[in-house]
Amino acid sequence: MIANSSSPNTPLLWHTLGAHQTLEQFQSDHKTGLTTQQVAAHLKQYGPNELVETGGRSTWEILLDQFTNIMLLLLVAVALISGGLDFFDWKAGKLDPGEIPFKDTIAIFAIVILNGLLGYFQESKAEKDLAALKKLASSRVRVIRDRKTLEVDSKDLVPGDIMLLEAGGQVAADGRLLEAANLQIRESALTGEAQAANKRVDADLPPDTPLGDRINLVYQGTEVLQGRAAVVVTSTGMQTELGRIATMLQSVETEATPLQKRMQLLSKVLVSGALGLVALVVIGGIIHLGTGSWKELLEVSLSMAVAIVPEGLPAVITVTLALGTQRMVKRNALIRKLPAVETLGSVTTICSDKTGTLTQNKMVVQLLHTSSTSLRVTGDGYAPTGEFAPAEAQTSAAIDPQEQPELLNLLTACTICNDAVLQQDKGSWIILGDPTEGALLTLAGKAGFEKDQWASKLPRVAEFPFSSERKRMSVIAEVIDADPALVDSPSHYMMFTKGSPELILERCTQIQVGDRAQAIAEAQRQLILDQNNQMAGRGLRVLGFACKPLTAIPPEGSDEASERELVWLGLVAMLDAPRPEVRDAVARCRSAGIRPIMITGDHQLTAQAVAEDLGIAKPGDRALSGRELERLSLEELADQVEHVSVYARVAPEHKLRIVQVLQRKNHIVAMTGDGVNDAPALKQADIGIAMGITGTDVSKDASDMVLLDDNFATIVAATEEGRVVYTNIRRFIKYILGSNIGELLTIGAAPLLGLGGVPLSPLQILWMNLVTDGLPALALAVEPAEPDVMKRPPHDPSESIFARGLGAYMIRIGIVLAILAIGLMSWSYGYAHANLTAEDPHGDRWKTMVFTTLCIAQMGHALAIRSNSRLTIELNPFSNPFLLAAVFLTSLLQLALVYVPFMRSFFNTHYLSGSELGICLGVSALMFIWVELEKLAYRWYAKTRK
Ligand code: ATP
């Protein structure tokens, strides 16, 4: 099929071919595109349009990273020292008969390896999941195929496809321009050049033109900053320029969250603490106590070193964050950067766009005004069926639009100054493109206007595209066969302009009355503004329309000068109903201490009406317009920012200022955005949120989170999940670290009490930290939300993880656990020595009793810690079945350590009689009771303070 030497595998010379020649290479056509059969054949020949990711860490790097963890290194040191001790015993023949030498060493190494592998699997799965999730947000591309415009997944593009580009999109494949209007493309991903490149169709380029100067081609991965274009795809997938240098692809971001970073720091502190303690015990033991041998002191220190380090914690945190992102995606919030999960929990302000996020973005035109008529329009959705009737009349005395020249011109403007496509899909009417423009096509359709018919009468020859800054757009059409009412001077071209009514009106000097244009009077201007305000005050979205006859096509970039002296045509108002779930979401925000703010490009009155309806604006709240905002200094804005809940008619750069000022006031800001120019504000915000459906690729790239359904309620749901994750992390941190403190104190007390021997061996401690603490901790990570999770104020993100009583709780609970264990230890030591048995000739089973008590007490702790304020009997025991299963399984395993002989000999435990086990269980139960009593005391305290 490809005759030319420039096959898709050597995409070097496409720039030397003309548009027609390029189309011929693929037997494609600019207007009709490829046929379905051609697409299938090309897909088979060239494969899907996908890049093979080569970025990110290699398997080895991920694996090796696991073993650089300082806690694992400490364990390795313990294993080696303990191996050394065993070695001397073994050499001196001091091992008990049947005892396995180097048991601790082997077990610790096994655990180190297991932990490393577990970490490796978790991390590589997390990277893969994140990559897969990112693909979920993969972009859709507009193409022409089989004479129709449709949207396809970018991976389904094939060479020869006619791809349509518009501002904000990322170019999904390499291609040759067929048509371009004001096209500006940022190619920094490819050439490193930050400056936007102006592209042109008719450039004649020599073969040796460097990549950055090939202005008739567009490249995959680059961004359309401005304008529109039609392109024939020349290469896809790995054959594109980007594919050829695919290593440049952004690697998946697995940035550590602030909490993970703090925990890494904490483990360093704990490890240094452990080493310090070892030194202290050894020195203290030698100088003061004089008890035991060197070896015994060393064993105590080794056990203490293992006890202080929460070996299971990093894994549990990683799993919790990963589960959090999974839960969020189920609720339509796609996390792109892991730290966002945590930051979400501390958001204090949500700045949201209006259109599509708070409202449904399903526009239906309801009213229109021309110079002499005011009409209401009937009909629902995008179906072009409905009638025009006088706005004031109660009856639906339908009028014929064909008899109203003003209306005809207004509807012509609606059709021509429009980039959307209205079409039928499986019986229902859908739009491709901007819903505002879709609604205008539907409106025109109700009067029998079809866009296709106009293409031959008034073909588009140039345009000044829409942008949120300009708040307007113009299309210049060649007049080939138009209604005489449209043109009252011998012009060859007609410009149609639409946009924000105030702005369009400012640029008008004439108004169409009947089939004539006449100078616009001040009273007419005032009437139009009044009509605009009146409709906007009802929450309607209003657009103004104008036209201008031209004798020549205006040059590119002359919009400021050309869009002047326009002829006013009329106003069109559409209803964009609020999303029904948003009102409730706003109320939830408020009770959670989060302030919702609306930032919109729309009219102030429209914005205020919608904001009041949804509960975003409270009585007394102010609305600020973009113009007012511009006049304020940062300091002045900072004074007002707490009272403004609506920002209207703002441009994207205003969003950046708003975020900065809110952040200055110590707010944690989540900010939505969809356009190219929203990217800086999204980056600046603590949580940048892009729209999954209507958002541009550029905004998605700059965001931390993508809303798959563009819905405000999803932001609130994600915040709730963020809070649940953070609460659960805090919960298992206090659970795990409390236990570590208890173990540490118990071990340290043994030599102080003059008991010969260490109550817990390193192996037993590892067992506790990883299994009996680890499993319930994992189950606590999936604890469902507490009912008050959205009734509390957000936590301060700079607060220490130990803030709000967590540190005190940990120490308190550690001491309680230690008191129970030490109490039992002092009694059972004497008891075991006084009651020697055949299985325990040396009276060592006091150690097993301490070990069992510590483990089982932690089971009670796990059950009780599910809620901070509600008693366990007040909770539904089955609302976290994982915890029940973990407690059951762990208790069973613990009993196996005592009652299964080979486990006993491996873990150096002793058989316990029924009454001895009963005593252990009884003492353990005290732990559960203590935590429940604490809750009662807390409740009583909270009540008396009220
Ligand atoms: P939000 O910022 O909440 O999404 P918005 O859609 O009104 O609201 P923009 O898309 O920035 O924000 O639009 C700003 C203004 O530009 C609109 O209020 C409207 O007056 C005008 N406008 C919007 N879409 C078009 C369009 N396709 N053509 C011409 N003017 C438009």
From TrEMBL:
The protein's topology relative to the membrane is: Multi-pass membrane protein
Matching entries from InterPro entries are given as: ATPase_P-typ_cation-transptr_C, ATPase_P-typ_cation-transptr_N, ATPase_P-typ_cyto_dom_N, ATPase_P-typ_P_site, ATPase_P-typ_TM_dom_sf, ATPase_P-typ_transduc_dom_A_sf, ATPase_P-type_domA, Cation_transp_ATPase_P-type
Asked whether the keyword ATP-binding is assigned, the reply is yes
Q: What does the UniProt keyword field contain?
A: ATP-binding, Cell membrane, Membrane, Nucleotide-binding, Translocase, Transmembrane, Transmembrane helix
Q: Where in the cell is it found?
A: Cell membrane
Q: Which terms does the UniProt entry file under GO BP?
A: intracellular potassium ion homeostasis; intracellular sodium ion homeostasis; potassium ion import across plasma membrane; proton transmembrane transport; sodium ion export across plasma membrane
Q: By its UniProt entry, which Pfam families does this protein fall under?
A: Cation_ATPase, Cation_ATPase_C, Cation_ATPase_N, E1-E2_ATPase
Record domain Cation-transporting P-type ATPase N-terminal: where: 13-87
One GO MF term attached to the UniProt entry: P-type sodium:potassium-exchanging transporter activity
Q: Which PROSITE patterns does the record match to this protein? A: ATPASE_E1_E2 (PS00154)
Segments passing through the bilayer: 67-85, 105-121, 269-290, 302-323, 732-753, 765-785, 806-829, 849-866, 878-899, 911-931
One cellular component term (GO) for this entry is:
plasma membrane
Write down the Gene3D superfamilies for this protein, in alphabetical order. Calcium-transporting ATPase, cytoplasmic domain N, Calcium-transporting ATPase, cytoplasmic transduction domain A, Calcium-transporting ATPase, transmembrane domain, HAD superfamily/HAD-like
NCBIfam families from the entry? Answer: ATPase_P-type (TIGR01494)
| Family indicated by similarity | Belongs to the cation transport ATPase (P-type) (TC 3.A.3) family. Type IIA subfamily.
Give the protein name, as stated in the record.
Magnesium-transporting ATPase
